[in-house]
Amino acid sequence: MALTVTIGCMAESEGSPESEDTNVAVWKSDLGVNFWRSTAADRERRRGAHRALMAELLPFGRDEEFTFVDLGAGTGAASRAVMDYFPKASAVLADFSPQMMEQGAADLAPYEGRYRYVEFDLAKSGRWPDGIPDPAQAVIASLAVHHLNDERKRRLFGEIFDRLAPGGWFLNYDPVKPPDPVTEEAWLRAGDRRDPDAAHKRAHRTAEEHLRYENHVRYMIPLEPQVGFLRAAGFEGVDVYWKELDYVIYGGRRPPVTRSM
Ligand SMILES: C[S@@+](CC[C@H](N)C(=O)[O-])C[C@H]1O[C@@H](n2cnc3c(N)ncnc32)[C@H](O)[C@@H]1O
């Protein structure tokens, strides 16, 4: 079975917010994006069902027309899962990487007319781009929020809440950091049993693999504070809807407008 656990064996300086933020360098580079493309089939095999669950969690009828927003959409893997499940749904894919959007345009060719890209740097606070629907009927994110620092995660969840239509859902599929060493050990134990080469790979990363790994874990935090950010923003129905070791889907909805009697 393929490697699931991606955290672990962090040296003191690794993955800390103090280390240089390489997010832009990784995602706005041909090197980073070519690697992402080269591993897409394996990722789809391991992660396809999780993205399908995000679609199943959305409260729309199978034949309903609606538009959702995919934050940090990349080449559109999560958007495609939602559009496959809801054949009349349309996607607004927000990302800051021209390289990922260019590759996404190729991957999304079968969905022509049902999607558009909007350039959006999620790390920056402030006004959202006009191309993002206001209000948004639903917002999803897949493997992107962990690239933002804690304060930006917290603020972003508030901005998503404000942008959502009443009753609208936000779902986030992301890796999380273990909350303590005992949990980390258990996650690694299970991950290493699934992939007997995992421990060796962790200990023998090339410089390029090390850069990618550092970027992957730099702002990764445990699950609990993130669920807390959602609750603090005002979401209801906040839950961890799926979890396996270090990967989770959590979310909630903006309360519907209640009519006064
Ligand atoms: C690991 S990929 C995930 C892509 C896609 N959501 C998926 O599930 O396959 C992370 C994506 O987040 C995007 N990203 C990272 N930091 C970002 C930022 N500050 N603003 C917007 N997009 C960002 C990257 O360009 C990349 O497309």
Task: Describe this structure as you would to a colleague.
The chain has 261 residues and is an alpha/beta fold. The protein has a single domain (23-253), classed as Vaccinia Virus protein VP39 (Rossmann fold, 3-Layer(aba) Sandwich). The protein has 10 helices and 7 strands. It has helices spanning 23-27, 30-38, 40-57, 77-85, 98-107, 150-163, 181-194, 198-203, 207-217, 223-233; strands at residues 66-71, 89-95, 115-119, 136-142, 164-175, 236-244, 247-253. It has a 7-stranded mixed beta sheet, sandwiched between helices. The N and C termini lie far apart (56 Å). The structure holds S-adenosylmethionine.
Key structural traits:
single chain, 261 residues, alpha/beta, Rossmann fold, 7-stranded mixed sheet, 10 helices, 20% strand, binds S-adenosylmethionine
How would a crystallographer describe the biggest sheet?
Answer: 7 strands, mixed
- Record the strand order, biggest sheet: 3-2-1-4-5-7-6
Given helix and strand content, the structural type is alpha/beta
Shape: globular
Q: Which hetero ligands occur in this complex?
A: S-adenosylmethionine
> What would CATH call the architecture?
3-Layer(aba) Sandwich
Proportion of residues in extended strands: 15-25%
Average residue pLDDT: 91
Q: Which parts are unreliable, with pLDDT below 50 for 5 consecutive residues or more? A: 7-17
How many structural domains does the protein architecture include?
Answer: 1
* Total DSSP helices: 10
